[in-house]
Amino acid sequence: MEPVENSRPRLEELGIGAGKYARGPLNAITDVPGVRIGQSTLISEKYNTGVTAIVPDQLTAERRHLPAALAVGNGYGKLVGATQLQELGAIETPILLTSTLSAFRVADALVAELLTTPAHEKTTTLNPVVGETNDGALSAIRDRPVGPEHVAEALAGAVTGPVAEGCVGAGTGTTALGFKGGIGTSSRRVTVGNAESGQEYTVGAIVQSNFTGILRIAGVPMPAAEMLEGTTADTIGNSCMIVVATDAPLESRQLERLARRAAYAMRGVGADYDQGSGDYAIAFSVADPAIAPNDSELSPMFHATMLAVEEALINSILRATTAFGPTGRAGYEIPIDEVRRRLAAAGATELN
Description:
- Strands 4-3-14-13-10-9 form a 6-stranded mixed sheet, with helices on both faces. It has a 4-stranded mixed sheet with strand order 1-2-5-6. The protein has a two-stranded antiparallel sheet with strand order 7-8.
- The protein contains 7 helices and 16 strands.
- Helix content is 22%, strand content 26%.
- Strand 13 (238-246), helix 5 (252-264) and strand 14 (277-285) form a beta-alpha-beta unit.
């Protein structure tokens, strides 16, 4: 079962403002109506791994697809379902995140789960979307331990409300920017259109962080080699999965533009975009794209998306706790007191 208590602070609790666009009430992807998150966490002497499910309630027997798009920052990954997502501009299943070598087991389990539901009693083709990062530094990844029972738990337990972050679900065994990484989330409220007739929407992000570089928080460098006194977290692979949801009525082409901005946001926290990295961003809308806004009105959405993703990535590190792998490797939590000291010394108050 996933841990739900976490006393470590999120970015907003460190006094860093949201930037140009306000955070949502929960500051989470679940601020987007109908989006639920479920997680199954596996922690033992051998394993630090799991699965995270992003479940949009708008996928029903009557509405079998939601507009969606994929942006590939670097394609060294095992994203199941990518080509149909690109070709049709839609998702037709929840989006699941997990460990690299378990991705194929998770995709099979997701299909098996959905085929038992009334909405799919006559289904003969289904495109599961499953992303991954490599948690092999802290887990016996070759055992492929994430299976049907974990997928079932994540789907059944998907709820609205606050989202557990850090060492949970698909982020249980990941590391990022020299520290223990994991799952992180954030959201923004943004008006599309002019001040008189514009409509306010929510854009939310959830991330699975597992990549290298030198961390920056609100522009302030946080080098792991200094903050951990030379003992940085071990990383195998070099990847990041980003999922963005919105209630803005965007069509798939516009969502692709949103997804690209989500991938750009990795640089804001210091990603080095290593050649072996699998960096993917998926964006979907829960709204009807028949009333899509003009492209000329989308700049606020782009900026809000980058802010939400940047904060989600930072939260994935701030909320993570030290974890040890079966072969002696470790992922060390970022020291919060030193983060506070560096932010104060730099006079950092806001994301931009």
